Amino acid sequence: MRLNSKVGGMLVIVLLVHILCIEGSSEFFVTIDTSDQYDPAIYDNIVVWADYRNGNEDIYGYSLVTGEEFQITTDEKKQWYPVIYDDIVVWCDSRNGNDDIYGYDLSTKEEFPVTTDPNDQWYPAIYGDYVVWADWRKVNWDIYGYSLSTKKEFQITIDESDQWFPAIYGDIVVWKDSRNGNWDIYGYRFSTEEEFQITENTNVQYNPAIYGNIVVWQDLRNGSWDIYGYDLARGEEFPITTNPNDQERPAIFGDIIVWEDKRNGNWDIYGYKLSTKEEFQITTDPNNQSRPAVYGNYVVWADERNRNLDIFGYDLLTKFPLIIWVDRGYSGEYFIGDKLTVYWVASGGGQITFWLKDADGKTLDDLGEVGSGSGRGSRGWTLKEKHGHGKKSIYAETDILYGRNSAECEFYILKEVANIEVKVIYQDGEPISGADVLLDNAFKGSTDSSGICTISEVEFGSYTITVRIDSDEDYRNIEIESTKKLYKEDFVFPRLDTSDTSSPIVSPPPTSDTPQPVSRSLLYIILALIVVIVALVTWAKMRKKEEKEEKEEKEEEKPQFIFCPQCKNRIQEDWTKCPYCNKELK
Fold it and tell me: Could you give the CA distance from residue 85 to residue 125 in angstroms, rounded to a whole number?
């Protein structure tokens, strides 16, 4: 049975019934077993962690709805560093004598291997269909991935330096990378298959995390560890905290960034609200709190206050009575016409009113109000082009808890949408220029000398692409579902006999068993040779005729001979007197 759906569980959690509060504060404990529990992760209403209570590390979980703790792994070897998305938990597993990646489906209670390569695989991360990790199989650390739906593994980075500690959101993977002689943050986008550099500072950047357009990491550029961020949509880097003491291991969800902080002489958990640029302290216990994770209004961490590592949590609603975040939609971005879904968590009942604002805080639209009900819910709107492109925000207000409280979250409306590259070729691979390309029967252009026509800024939806060459025609149906992907469609046409006036038939692309036609270049060469031969033959015939005519003309011009009637000697016909006998001839 599925423990919770992505949205539905957020509507029914009533945490205060199931969680023991600590001295009336907003802190609560998840597990206080006398053995060590560490490396917590959270998704929706489920917390998971690595647990040493059985004499070896196992993966355990806890439902914030039911207050029920449960064991996930039972193998006697070490399982550690769990992460969770929806119903899937993945972790590092040493059962095969090296560290592999395994997974568990909470809804079916089935365990499964993700990768069992004989080399080490560490630090998994998961979002949606993808699991990613750091992999040692090529004698350096690379980033690899795995599709849960296709059960196929794939390599993401190929650089010979080390890539380590990946994080993933939407179709973007980020990691720390040593290719420049220091650790930098790099990224990769699945939809475009493009790798990109995020940080260029020559000091060390470590431990990245990502949510939506925002990447965060710990940074050594100021001589101690600080937390920095980068906005992928705007291409801008910004500091989050530069306190002279160390701040490490950031985590991010929605508008909230959390990290472990040593400014008080021990490790505490601190946070930062992006929309208000407000920093705040979460834990004040003099013992160490470390490895924070955040989802919705809950932060969890490993805590040493009981002289061993336990898992504790904090309810952000105590500090922020209203918290909202957005569903990032296609590829972690938004575009005109996409439905924007906002989720909220509120401290109690009352009405929540929503507005759409621009980058300068100006109100663009009143989006209406909704009752907060149980304190959790979601609301969606279809954005219209009248609001323009670029940075926007959803602003919300509520009258709960004896006053008005507000929350805000940013997102971006993209002007660019998908492009379609149409390539038209013959069966032998030669490009066809001048072919007409239509989208839903509307002419979009003709192919160039390389056989390509690009249809730009196509919005989401289903389309038919048609290619016409004289009376020949072929078509494809295509579904546009990502703003960042370049869709490619190849059309292959056979070479037709020009004497055939019947309707042409589009043939499939050739296979290795299909006889290949003579290439067009070879035909051009043969045709040129024929032209040259015909020209030479024609020239030879003309020259022969000219020579004959010249000979005949010379023959006509040559004097004619006769014999003298008296002495019988040979004389010219035009002579008037014979030189031999002096006989008068004319």
Answer: 9
The CATH class of the 198-320 domain is mainly beta
Alpha carbon of 141 to those of 13, 121, 138, 152, 341: distances in Å? 40, 9, 7, 20, 38
Is residue 10 within 8 Å of 345, Cβ to Cβ? yes
Q: For residue 177, give every residue at least 6 positions away whose Cβ sits within 8 Å of its Cβ, in sequence order, or none.
A: 157, 159, 161, 162, 163, 164, 183, 184, 185, 186
The residues, any chain, with a CB within 8 Å of residue 64's CB and separated by 6 or more, are 13, 15, 18, 19, 45, 46, 47, 298
- What pTM, to 2 d.p., does this model score? 0.71
How is residue 406 written in tokens? 């507000």
Q: Are 127 and 168 in contact (CB under 8 A)?
A: yes
What's the pLDDT tens digit per position in 202-238?
999 999 999 988 999 999 999 999 999 999 888 899 9
Distance CA 563, CA 544 (A): 35
**Contact present, 67 and 19 (Cβ < 8 Å):** yes
* CATH class of the domain whose range is 1-116: mainly beta
Domain ranges of the chain: 1-116, 198-320, 324-414, 418-517
Quote the CA–CA distance of 457 and 483 in Å, as a whole number. 9
Burial 534-573 (b: 16+ CB within 10 A, else e): eeeeeeeeeeeeeeeeeeeeeeeeeeeeeebeeeeeebee
Q: Which parts of the chain have pLDDT scores under 70?
A: 1-25, 328-338, 349, 372-374, 384-385, 400-403, 414-416, 482-485, 496-524, 551-561, 563, 568-572, 586
Cβ(457)–Cβ(463) below 8 Å: no
φ, ψ of residue 218 to 5 degrees: the values are -95, 140
